[in-house]
Amino acid sequence: MSQPALTIIAPGQAADRRRRLLEIAGAAAIAATYIFLVLTQPADIANGPASFSALVALGGFLLGAVLLIVAVLPALPTSTVVLIPVALVLNVVLGQLMGSTGLPFYIDAIGTVLIAVLAGPAAGAATGALSSIVWSFFNPTVLPFAAGAALIGFLAGMAARGGLFRRFYLAPVAGFVTGILAGVVSAPIAAFVFGGTSGLGTGAIVSAFRAMGDTLLAAITKQALISDPMDKAIVFTIAALLAYALPRRTTFQFPFVRRYRVLAGKAPAAPEA
Amino acid sequence: MTPRLHPFTTLTLAVCAAVVTTAAAYWPLSVAVALAAVILAARHGIAGRVLTAGAVILTPLCLSLLVLHGLFFPEGQTVLAQWGPARVTAEGLGFALELGTRTTACVLVFLLFSFTVSVPDLVSALAGRRIPPQFGFVLASTLTLLPAVAGRLDRIRQAQETRGMVVGRGLLSRLGTLRLQMVPLVLALIDDAGSRAQALDARGFGSPGPRTSYREVADPPAQRLFRAAALVFAAAAVAGRIVASWPTGAAS
Question: Does residue B30 surpass a pLDDT of 80?
Fold first, then answer.
């Protein structure tokens, strides 16, 4: 206690390295699980309900998501941590509001993308994964998709850092690309854990590909490539609209927004600027 | 009956039940697990809530499975009926039954856990382990924020209606009213979060180090032993499944 500087700095660096390792391990677990599942997908699902693949998919993806949360969460500043519950609530409430307009999309990631735009890729990834875990208290079927949700948050943050939200027409493009990647990563979960999709509309698209003789994973991946990019393009557009509709005093209080000039326009004159 | 099981005990039970059901891939077992979950829910007096929430989640999923695999299952051999490209096969119906019952069992078991667990107990139990304290905060904060936000959204809608907001029939008018409700909601929530962050930081939320919890959750040794045994059992079930169906043939 008499030499706080000596005792604090060294563990801090060690903790940083440990966190970095955990992040890499989490991302590697998700990537390895996906590659393993695609390489070893059961050739003939008629033999049994792909129980082995389901266990691998659940274990690998959840492990990856949990590692990412453990790595990222303690490093986030408090101002970002308090935003995560807000993001989850927004995911749910705005998703329901969008549902009331009668548009045929399940828009359930607006909060995650908005937080990623305001607070960066790490916050976005943690928000996505945590959203799935907390929301699984009410709907356990979203739990296995935690890795996909983390990927959406991470990619949204990277797009924001790269300045794709500065030009309004680029936000849907970033959403489209994110949707492709997230859809492909989530397809094995839908295929092996649930054996299909939860919506009747998406189920019809999968049926069409199955009728042409595709394997279940191929059919669901193709369906995801049809619905997800469109869905995420809309989500990114709504998140961008919200980010610009908020007063600049609010958006520019986030260090990530100021540092990477995420949003177009000048920072308001602040006492510290 | 059991008034106070440690939250981790019920969580371990739910996870192990789901893992064993998935590993076994045997629909009578799935049905038995689902029934057991419903009976336990009834004994806790929450069968109605569990079944309602389960039905909302499972009905579209099971219908979708039935249509998808019941009508289109190219791997199926035993054709029961055929209309054009759609073939009803015994294998497809069996596959839909296996996956439908498995998902039903897992969903009901987890709903039983989340509807019976006491969130304050769970949060303080989490804080006692090596789990980042922020996780407990996010969990508890979200669960308390959800009802508050529903109320706030209602007030925003009323305020905008007094200012002349009318929900029209056209899509553009609907999107317009949506914007009138979403922007104030998001702004208020982010603003609130900012002031909450300052209050939390003032109380040392962001500082590292161990946390003290005023809430003690009893964790008897018997329950610890039971958890360990349940985990070993689940691990054995997974190991058995992996050994039984390691995809040597499929990988080549």
Answer: yes
Residue in B closest to A208 by C-alpha = B72
Residue A172's contacts (CB-CB under 8 Å, 6 or more residues apart) are: A233, A234, A236, A237
* Per-residue model confidence as pLDDT tens digits over A137-194: 888 888 888 888 999 999 999 999 998 988 888 999 999 999 999 888 888 888 888 8
- Closest CA relative to residue A190, chosen from A221, A159, A212: A221
Contact residues for B41 (Cβ-Cβ < 8 A; gap 6+): B47, B49, B50, B51, B108, B111, B112, B115
Distance CA A254, CA B175 (A): 28
A81-259 has CATH 1.10.10 classification: no
Question: What pLDDT, on a 0 to 100 scale, did the predictor assign at position A272?
Answer: 47
Of chain B residues 55-94, which have a CB less than 8 A from chain A? Answer: 57, 60-61, 63-65, 67-69, 71-77, 85-86, 91
More confident residue, B67 or B3: B67
The domains of chain A are located at 81-259
Residues of chain B in contact with residue A78, where contact means CB-CB under 8 angstroms, are 197, 200-201, 205-206
Which of B144, B122, B146 shows the shortest CA–CA distance to B14? B122
Task: Map tokens 């996956």 to a residue.
Answer: B99
Query: What chain A residue is nearest to B179 in terms of C-alpha separation?
Result: A242
pLDDT given for residue A11 in this prediction: 57
Q: In chain B, what residues touch A247 (CB-CB under 8 Å)?
A: 187
ipTM of the complex as predicted: 0.82
User: Does B107 contact A141 at a Cβ distance shorter than 8 Å?
Assistant: yes
